[in-house]
Amino acid sequence: MVMFLTAVTVERHTNDTVRPVRPVGGATSVLPFTAMAGDAHDTIKRFWEIQDGGDYSQLASLFADDAVLVDPVFGTFTGGEAIAGFMQRMNVEMAARGASFRLVELAGDDSTAWAQWEATTSAGPRTGVGVYRVRDGKLIYYRDYMNAG
Questions:
Q1: Whole-number Å distance between alpha carbons of 94 and 98
Q2: Could you give the CA distance from residue 82 to residue 85 in angstroms, rounded to a whole number?
Q3: Which of 25, 80, 121, 126 minimizes the number of CB atoms within 10 Å of its CB?
């Protein structure tokens, strides 16, 4: 899978924050996305490959027994068994909503990763970011932040 990131010019503010100003070369200018590699990055890349397959229940194997998953719609799930049940529910919920997800950007190292995503649903598009922590190749924390639709 090849990912692209739109190139933008930025302006630096006095507090060292960077703000996009406008696309470089117009809206069609893109750069291939490159991310740091590591255990968390690789685990989350696998997470998205499985999710793209549409069977959320297969994601449960990526979580540690003591993991915590925080979903902005469905709540907090603690432990492998609770997360596995939530993933089974997601198979039904996402099918009912006609949902599909697209990974926009993924970055991470050995212990943390984040992913920007876009969702298409029957209720309209949504965007968000997932924040992940990984230990020994297993997710120990996953929280999604979603923009209001």
A1: 6
A2: 5
A3: 25
